[in-house]
Structure formats: structure tokens, C-alpha cells
Amino acid sequence: MTTDNNKDTLQKFIFDNAAVRGEFVEISSTWHEILQRHSYPPAVKTVLGEMLAAAALLSANLKFNGAIVMQIHGDGPVRLLVVECDSGLRMRATAKVADGVSVADDASLTDLLNPGGKARFVITLDPADKMPGQQPYQGIVPLDGDDMATVIENYMLRSEQLDTRLWLAADDNVARGLLLQKLPRHSGKDDQIKQESEADEIETWNRAVMLASTLKQEELLSTDIQTLMNRLFWEETIRVFDPAHPQFHCSCTREKVGNMLKMLGREEVDGALDELGQLAIDCDFCGKHYEFDKVDCAQLFVGDTPVEVLIAASDVKH
Length: 318
Hints:
The N and C termini lie far apart (49 Å). This protein has helices at 29-35, 42-59, 109-113, 148-159, 191-212, 217-222, 225-233, 254-264, 266-276, 294-300; strands at residues 9-15, 20-27, 66-73, 78-86, 90-97, 120-127, 137-142, 163-170, 175-182, 238-240, 247-248, 279-282, 289-292, 315-317. The protein has 318 residues and is of the alpha+beta class. β3 (66-73) and β4 form a beta hairpin. The strands form three sheets. Strands 7-6-3-4-5-11 form a six-stranded mixed beta sheet, with helices on one face. Strands 8-9-2-1-10 form a five-stranded antiparallel beta sheet, with helices on both faces. The protein is 34% helix and 27% strand. The chain is built from ten helices and 14 strands.
């Protein structure tokens, strides 16, 4: 299916008579919204764009009202990558590159984030309607893989016990991806039927992965979803669902920025106020500007209201 009125598109499909599902995603408008606020080196844009496509693909299968947040905390020139996608496919992303470093255009994921082997990959599932005392689920693992697709495949196999394969690509114009996932098979009543069903599903899964593995990055970047689906799976019987449309959205608010300041603690905030006179904070995701003077900050610490901040990715500056 082609994009609808040039909207970003996520297309789900499923193989008939086999527990294999797939998704294509094409993100251009949202990607432009992210890139116009930052000047990232080409290699950083590639990894962040691939991570954006992957987050959309994983979020589309979540069965709750909330957001998935993917983070990589690095020990190289890139200190942090963050992508957030909620159940409505509203997305935002940012990267933090160390000051004064030179990043080669062809730098690998390892070069950027994990030269010392200490990088961590974090996935957080944050429900929108938490029960009292409920905390977001967070999985933290070493950065295991030489590219973004392999990192996520390894995470999914370790945490979800699901065979998952991804093909990701990104450039200055678009972030695209393909996901295939082998679902748990349904048990048959008869052992013979179970064995035949399992064999058929394994055969379908292996064939789907083999076909998708012929996809080159340049082909993924330059070809629309409908054409790719027809080109790869034209011999398969698949069911296609109504497309969904990712879009850029930043959830920052003055209240959330205030909560971030409260997490820093009154002593640190007062020290910054003494030095700067007022606190100016720009959202790393959308660039929105917030200012807090001494009266504003004093009001933050009135009472004992608990705070919850998932990501505090902003800088405090004069």
C-alpha cells in the first residue's frame, strides 16, 4: 500500500496458515521534524533513523495504552540515543554527541556508542494509565550487536523468546524498516498434526526470512512499501491490514520540566539560580524553551508531591 497523502505509513501483514507476521514502516515527515532541530553527523543520523523505524515497528505490536522508549547509553562519541513512540505511533527522538569530537561519516554502531564495550541498551514500557504504585517496566542489557537490527533481534530473543528479524535503513530523507516475527504456534490435538503444523510453520518462517534477506539497504530506502511487499512476497498468501500513520509529537510540558528540576533537588537548583539568576531549559526533542525564575523554583518545592519523569534529556543553561 502506498503512502496516504504523503503520510508516514506503517503497514501490518500476516502470512495465512502460518504463525508469521510482518510490518513495513516508512517515516519521512516525522524524520524531517526531528532532523530540522539538530545537526547530527551522517553516521549518527543513520543509527538514530534506524532506531526510529525499529521503535515504530515494535510499538505497533504493543497491547497497552502507553509508550515504548528505546535508549542507548554509550561510552563513545555518542553518549545517548533516545526514541519514544506511543500506542498512537506518535514519535520523538534525540541524540547527544560529546562536545568537540569528530565523527567519521562511515562510523559503525560500535565506533559511535560502544568502543569501550560498556554501552547499554534500554527498553522502557510506560503505561499511560498507571495503577497506584505502578512503575514502568524497564529492560536493561549490554549493547549486543554490530548494527541496530541485530541489537534489537538479540534483545527480543532474550526478553520475549520470540524469533524476530529486522531490516532497517535511514538517510537524510527517510527511515524505513521491515520486521518479521515468528509467533508461538498453536498446539494441535493430534501429535501427527502438531508435527506437520510445526514443520510447515518453520518452513514458512525460513522462506520469509530468506526472501527478506535479499533486500538491500539502498532498495529499502528507495522503494515504496507496496512495491517491496509485492517484490518480496509475491508467491506467498498474506493478509494486509489497514495502514497506520506515525507522526511527530513531543510530550514535553512545563509541568514535566518542573518535575525534572525537582528530581535534581533543591540544593542543586538553588545553586544554579545563584549562579545564573534564572534557569533556561530547552527540550532536546522539540526545542521548546522554558524559563524558571527564583519564585517559580520555590513553588516547585512546596509540599511533598511525588514526581515521575521518564526522560530528563534537557540542558539547563543561561
